[in-house]
Please model this.
Amino acid sequence: MAPAATSRIAVVTGASGGIGAATARQLAAAGYRVVLTARRKELIEAIAEEITASGGAATAYQLDVTDRDAVDEFATAFATIGVLVNNAGGALGADPVATGDPADWRAMYETNVIGTLNLTQALLPKLEASGDGTVVVISSTAGHGTYEGGGGYVAAKHGAHVLAETLRLEIVGRPVRVVEIAPGMVKTDGFALTRFGGDAQKAAKVYEGVAEPLTADDVADTVTWAVTRPSHVNVDLLVLRPRAQASNTKVHRDV
Ligand code: 8X3
Model:
């Protein structure tokens, strides 16, 4: 059996909204002492307060996952950690490869891949010290197949997927599981809006006519399920999509 979650620490990156915030709330409800990290301090502080007010244990720590010095400093606060959820990331632009902005590609690689690398490297000794750690990588179905306009996001998420797969090979035999959760279409407040530079109309088009895109809570539910399996059970990869989405390019729309 996995040790009781109670009093174990779960670090969640990108916890200021969407999947990260939902995951922090659900892990706290499962008994973890949650540490919410993100760049936007006020947001994570508010969520941590809300979790605490409802009887959970949560703290907020402002962190940019691409800043390695800051990540290393953050890691010094812990002797052991039970769970690391690498959720920080996201998409910038939906341009074809021929015209995509290299700055967007670079930024996406930095957050989705290097950010995950930074946290994982810094916290791996602490996860191992817990005797039963779990690294979760929130990748995407964009890490398992491409689509037109996927561009740098697809490339970066393939990087995150490969990081998870390679790490699992390299640390086998040590007491740390590596779990990859790959969501398809998830409707959150921020994802599509960020991708389209704040253009609400373009963002709304992503979900147009789709009966029920996944919610942040749907993804948080799978994360919580995966990390609370008995210790010897490693959920290598869990791909989830809404029923209306059969593949990256096949979505049923009632329009
Ligand atoms: C989000 C899924 O289809 O926008 O990670 O690439 S998609």
About this structure: The mean pLDDT is 96. The longest helix spans residues 102-129. Strands lie at 9-12, 33-38, 57-62, 83-86, 133-138, 176-183, 237-240, 245-247, 250-251.
